[in-house]
Amino acid sequence: MIEELKKNFEIFRKTYLPKLDDENKRIEAFKDFEKSGFPNKKLEDWKFSDFSSIISNKIENIKVSLERNKNFKFKNFIQDFDHTKIFFFNGFFIEKGEEFDEKRGFSDAISYNGYKENFSKDGGFLIHPNSNNALESLNNAFFTDGLSIATKENFEFKKPIVIYNIFEGSKKNNFFNNKIHFVISENSKLDIMIYNINIGKEPIFFNLKNTFHLEKNSIFKLYNLSDFKKKDVYYNFGRYFLEENSIFENFNNCYSGGFSKSDLVCSINKQYSSCFINGIMLTQDQNHHEIKTLINHNEKNTKSYQKVKSVLNNNSKGVFQGKIKVNSVAQKTDGYQLSKALLLDKDSEFDSKPELEIYADDVKCSHGSTSGNLDEEAIFYLMSRGLNKYEAKKLLIKGFLTDAIETITNNEIKKYFLNKLENEIHEH
């Protein structure tokens, strides 16, 4: 597969890169990837998810196509709540909602390819070679498009933004790389959902890097949802930077796809800032989902909270790796982490690695992880109240996962995810 990627990159380099200013950095990034190859279980961060084997088993050949289809129209938008739409098709920016103009508070809403001179003010799209993450290097080499947006100061967007990443996977086009970069400026508020959908018949590999900078007194809420097929592969590489008195809320829904990994790093750099990373995994049919987090407390008087709940069935696998790191200057840190899993059959597997790395002495930090089966006494009790066994299990699963969804503070999106959970459990 590495050889196939080399051939793809040569075509990519000759047909696409000469049009861009960062050609040399792209080439260097691909060389970085070649040195390491796809991550495998020998690496600590990938000990539970051997990506090299996973990608080989699910994707026969990796192919990149640079064909655009600006005339493609997507109709199955979310109807449950009012929102602003941003639309990508097969890795290319197609259109944005009418709300994006100066009067409504955005300084930019751009496609990288179309406006390559308009980098974000802190270099959100700039490529930094020699990454120690092979998939980031791959993204740096191949990314075809992206979005860079900065809010104005003292601005609150009334409706959430939904970024639709629509893919039509085919044997000629199944590998997609994008970058998303946002600056939530001082005293601003913004809610975003990233929604990934494969409408094609062939499996895809989607490699996404997103970077968000939260400036002083800003509030940012990010929600992740995917509708992938059984052999689709998804890697989400997220980096979040928090300044003074900012609040970051992130919720991850892992329902579908063959493999997904959310690799999330939150750096809390100034006082009185808070980071909340929560999520659910509902897996079946040999699906494999992982949430990996690193919370860096780099200043005193900061807070982080993590809650991930998982339900696994039919030979599926779930992984949670969560780490709270407290710098020596980060006194008065309050860090909390909890992971719980239900295994519905003997063939499913849940791996958890909670970590605390603390260099300050005046902190309050805790972590915990549990896994087990459904409570048979609870099932018996519900059956004694008139439910059949299937209904009793469904109700317990719903209650178990709803606890994590209740951490969402956007009521409309919370309701949407609760309804989606109901549908997913029904099909589970």
Quick tags:
alpha/beta; 428 residues; ten-stranded mixed β-sheet; globular; nine-stranded mixed β-sheet; 21% helix; 39% strand
Account of the protein in words:
This protein has helices at residues 2-15, 23-36, 51-58, 134-142, 376-384, 389-405, 411-427; strands spanning 84-89, 92-96, 106-111, 145-151, 161-167, 175-184, 189-198, 205-214, 219-227, 233-242, 247-254, 259-268, 274-283, 288-297, 303-312, 317-326, 334-343, 349-358, 364-372. The protein is α/β, with parallel strands linked by helices and 428 residues long. The strands form 2 sheets. It has a 10-stranded mixed β-sheet, with helices on one face. The protein has a 9-stranded mixed β-sheet with strand order 3-4-6-8-10-12-14-16-18. Helix 5 packs across helix 6 and helix 6 packs antiparallel against helix 7 (411-427). The relative contact order is 0.09.
